[in-house]
């Protein structure tokens, strides 16, 4: 049915009203939009507020697009970087764009899983600062933004390269570039997005120092707004994969603004005029067509050059990243190998290596510590230094041979064997300037950019030098620890040997005492006397063993007096001759008029015999020579510090005794163990050996130095402190034997066998004996019988109260009481602290009945003095 115009109009109005009603109802039913507060800080072109107070930037546009899809109502809250960070942390802001991961921020922020953009850091310099590489910032002032990750990355980079510089912090990146342009700082660090977008606004120079690419994310307070991050992750993941997505369009619009910029009106007017002229001059265009084609080719050539320049810049950036990665690895066993690998990749070298210098004379060599060749780790070689290109590097510090290195160093076999044409090397020095080795890169073709390679090598050489110095210091520390442990082990064994000798001497004292008493009670014609005399000799031989053990423990100064060392050697000439092979010649070179030395002649002769028999064993069945020489030497601290470990001698005059042979010599490993007890290289070797020698020398405050080399013989040099000649006769005088006296002796010893044996011996001399089991018991007994006791014979080492403390108590009770001390240790070791305190005598265990009688009678005779 036809519809009239008025009716049709009414129908249309009804339909429109219905549609509007439905739309209103739909809006009422729809969920309200979520309000999202977003922090905006000055970081153009990523985020910033324009002059009209509107949020701008590519991250803002990405967020607006996502808000439209998710029905978010965005509220942009401006502030500084730190203000936005604090508000987000407190939960006042829901989202914070452009946040980089750091360990500190991970503690209080949640980040999206998909980065919104990848940035890197770039260094700008003042035009007059002449900063072209990171090495040029040494000692300069560098501006960074407060709390900015780009500045922190640059600080870390300078620390890795050991480049000191001063940092000044600014509120934003605009202030950083403004300070660089004004000369307030020499250089400044910004993000590449900000720098590329605004560098033309400031009078600054972009340097080639580009470093530390890092991803930025959207962030929110810990445990909040996970749905916001999840939605943004979905959108970013899809947009980054599709090159035609709105994500890439937004980035292109902000980072490449010229692409979307419309032409100004005058361009159109000029184009119209030009078109008219072209129509009029079409004939002229045809004439000059060839010139146009030539110009077009020139433009294409220029474009190709620009492409090559961009490719070169990308290669440079890759190399810088490679340098940062190479020198930034932590120290460790594989550090140097990782270093040369990154060096080879950064410099595009066929071979890269780090080597250390071995030796200090004409026979010096270079030993490679890490080698990277033809794309893989290679074997480390060793080559002679004289005549090589390495020798030139160590002399000059750095050498660059872009080509023809084989012709320059024809005597270098390594260059010929590997077919090398170019070489760049740098010397490695420690903090004191001492040469440690070198680092180098080599190629089988000439270098196209030797300056760049030399710059890279300087950077890597600084890091390699620091690592070599660290490794050397660590090796020295370990060696010192080994020496200390070795000295402690010898000292512990010495303490053990001294203790065993002391206890063994107690046993021998008891045996010798009972045996001497038995000898007195037997008739001179008794058949048992020869057996007892043999037993006495055996006991004395056992006593010699304890003296060796005391000598090893460093407590072996027995009968010490001034001796002529030459005379000590001459007295044993015959004994030495019969102790060595008939094929070996014994030679003496004894200096005249040597000073005397304080020594126990028997102990020194034992040392000489030990060294000579060892020298004979080293020569073996071959013909050879053993040389004994004496001399006088003035030794300073530098020389004495080179003596065998554990010896502390003062500078001054020393009488030296050298025992040298033409035998097989010793390796470094053997030399390090020769003074260990029971260590030997002989099939039949046994006993304390040279360890007792070392103990005897320590007891004489003497030193020893060893010169030996495998296959070239050995020299032992003994050093005895010289002393002035004593007045009067050298030989000690025998004391006059006083008449026998009668009295009471307090015998103090914790060993019952000692009390029984010594008590019997004293009673055989006609003395009365009172005993005590230790120092406390001795003080109690003496307190009760102080008026009847004439003499005290007391052991030094006892439980509860030792002889030293008991001696002091007894002297306080009766200052005139004579006290004889006895010990299994030697006299010098035992009575040092009693000198000048009225000690009546000392008996070293084991002692004979004759020694006991003489010492007791001398003490009783001096009672009234």
From TrEMBL:
Family annotation (Gene3D superfamilies): 1.10.287.130, 3.30.450.40, 3.40.50.2300, Histidine kinase-like ATPase, C-terminal domain, Periplasmic binding protein-like II
Enzyme class, top EC level, equals transferase
Q: Which residues carry this modification: 4-aspartylphosphate?
A: 795
Q: Where does the record place the Response regulatory domain? A: 744-860
Please list the coiled coil stretches.
461-493
A Pfam family of the record is HATPase_c
Please verify whether the record's keywords include RNA-binding. Answer: no
- Tell me which residues make up the Histidine kinase domain: 499-724
Chemical reaction(s) catalysed:
ATP + protein L-histidine = ADP + protein N-phospho-L-histidine
Give the residue spans that cross the bilayer.
266-288
Q: Which InterPro entries match?
A: CheY-like_superfamily (IPR011006), GAF-like_dom_sf (IPR029016), HATPase_C_sf (IPR036890), HATPase_dom (IPR003594), His_kinase_dom (IPR005467), HisK_dim/P_dom (IPR003661), HisK_dim/P_sf (IPR036097), Sig_transdc_His_kin-like_C (IPR004358)
- Signal sequence span is none
**Which keywords annotate this record?**
Coiled coil, Membrane, Phosphoprotein, Transmembrane, Transmembrane helix
Q: Recorded E.C. number(s)?
A: 2.7.13.3
How is this protein named in the record? histidine kinase
- Recorded source organism is Geothrix rubra
Cite the source lineage.
Bacteria, Pseudomonadati, Acidobacteriota, Holophagae, Holophagales
């Amino acid at each position: 049915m036809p519809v009239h115009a008025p009716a049709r109009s009414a129908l249309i109005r009804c339909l429109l009203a219905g549609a509007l009603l439905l739309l209103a109802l739909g809006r009422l039913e729809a969920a309200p939009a979520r309000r999202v507060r977003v922090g905006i800080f000055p970081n153009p072109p990523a985020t910033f507020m324009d002059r009209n107070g509107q949020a701008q930037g590519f991250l803002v546009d990405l967020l607006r697009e996502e808000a439209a899809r998710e029905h978010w109502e965005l509220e942009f809250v401006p502030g500084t970087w730190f203000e936005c960070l604090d508000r987000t942390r407190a939960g006042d802001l829901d989202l914070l764009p452009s946040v980089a991961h750091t360990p500190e921020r991970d503690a209080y922020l949640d980040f999206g899983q998909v980065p919104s953009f990848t940035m890197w850091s770039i260094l700008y310099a003042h035009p007059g600062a002449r900063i072209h590489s990171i090495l040029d910032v040494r000692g300069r002032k560098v501006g960074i933004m407060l709390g900015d990750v780009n500045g922190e990355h640059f600080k870390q980079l300078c620390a890795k390269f050991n480049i000191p510089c001063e940092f000044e912090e600014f509120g934003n990146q605009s202030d950083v570039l403004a300070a660089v342009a004004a000369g307030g700082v020499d250089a400044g660090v910004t993000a590449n997005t900000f720098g590329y977008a605004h560098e033309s606004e400031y009078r600054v120079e972009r340097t080639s120092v580009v470093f530390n690419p890092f991803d930025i994310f959207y962030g929110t307070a810990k445990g909040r707004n996970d749905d916001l991050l999840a939605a943004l992750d979905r959108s970013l993941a899809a947009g980054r994969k599709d090159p035609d997505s709105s994500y890439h369009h937004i980035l292109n619009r902000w980072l490449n603004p010229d692409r979307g910029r419309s032409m100004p009106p005058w361009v159109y007017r000029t184009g119209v005029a030009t078109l008219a002229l072209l129509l009029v001059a079409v004939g002229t265009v045809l004439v000059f067509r060839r010139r146009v084609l030539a110009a077009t080719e020139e433009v294409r050539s220029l474009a190709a050059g620009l492409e090559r320049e961009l490719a070169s810049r990308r290669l440079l950036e890759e190399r810088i990243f490679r340098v940062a990665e190479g020198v930034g690895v932590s120290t460790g066993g594989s550090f140097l190998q990782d270093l040369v690998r990154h060096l080879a990749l950064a410099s595009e070298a066929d071979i890269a290596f780090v080597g250390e210098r071995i030796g200090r004379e004409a026979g010096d060599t270079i030993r490679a510590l890490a080698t990277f060749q033809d794309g893989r780790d290679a074997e480390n070689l060793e080559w002679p230094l004289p005549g090589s290109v390495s020798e030139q590097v160590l002399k000059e510090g750095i050498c660059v041979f872009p080509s023809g290195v084989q012709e320059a160093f024809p005597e270098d076999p390594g260059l010929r064997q590997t077919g090398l044409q170019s070489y760049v090397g740098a010397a490695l020095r420690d903090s004191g300037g001492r040469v440690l080795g070198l680092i180098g890169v080599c190629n089988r073709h000439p270098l196209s950019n030797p300056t760049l390679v030399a710059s890279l090598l300087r950077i890597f050489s600084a890091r390699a030098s620091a690592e070599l110095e660290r490794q050397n210091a660590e090796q020295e520390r370990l060696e010192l620890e080994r020496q200390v442990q070795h000295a402690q082990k010898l000292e512990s064994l010495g303490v053990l040997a001294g203790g065993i000798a002391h206890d063994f001497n107690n046993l021998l004292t008891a045996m010798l005492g009972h045996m001497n008493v038995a000898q007195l009670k037997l008739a001179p014609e008794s058949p048992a006397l020869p057996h007892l005399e043999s037993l006495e000799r055996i006991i004395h031989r056992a006593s010699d063993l304890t003296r060796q053990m005391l000598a090893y423990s460093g407590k072996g100064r027995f009968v010490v007096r001034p001796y002529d060392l030459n005379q000590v050697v001459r007295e044993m000439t015959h004994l030495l001759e019969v102790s060595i092979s008939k094929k070996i010649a014994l030679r003496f070179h004894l200096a005249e008029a040597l000073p005397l030395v304080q020594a126990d002649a028997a102990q020194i002769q034992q040392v000489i015999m030990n060294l000579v028999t060892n020298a004979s064993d080293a020569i073996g069945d071959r013909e050879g020579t053993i040389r004994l020489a004496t001399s006088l030497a003035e030794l300073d601290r530098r020389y004495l510090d080179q003596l065998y470990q554990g010896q502390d001698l003062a500078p001054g005059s020393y009488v030296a005794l050298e025992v040298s042979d033409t035998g097989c010599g010793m390796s470094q490993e053997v030399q390090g163990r020769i003074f260990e007890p029971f260590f030997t290289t002989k099939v039949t070797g046994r006993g304390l050996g040279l360890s007792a020698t070392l103990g005897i020398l320590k007891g004489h405050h003497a030193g020893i130095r060893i010169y030996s080399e495998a296959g070239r013989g050995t020299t032992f040099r003994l050093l005895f402190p010289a002393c002035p000649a004593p007045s009067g006769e050298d030989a000690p005088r025998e004391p006059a034997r006083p008449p026998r006296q009668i009295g009471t002796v307090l015998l103090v010893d914790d060993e019952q066998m000692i009390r029984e044996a010594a008590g019997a011996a004293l009673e055989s001399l006609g003395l009365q004996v009172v005993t005590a089991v230790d120092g406390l018991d001795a003080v109690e007994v003496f307190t009760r019988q102080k008026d009847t006791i004439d003499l005290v014979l007391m052991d030094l080492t006892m439980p509860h109260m030792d002889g030293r403390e008991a001696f002091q108590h007894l002297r306080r009770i009766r200052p005139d009481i004579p006290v004889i001390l006895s010990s299994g240790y030697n006299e010098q070791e035992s009575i040092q602290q009693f000198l000048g305190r009225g000690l009546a005598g000392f008996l070293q265990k084991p002692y004979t009945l004759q020694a006991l009688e003489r010492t007791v009678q001398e003490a009783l005779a001096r009672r009234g003095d």
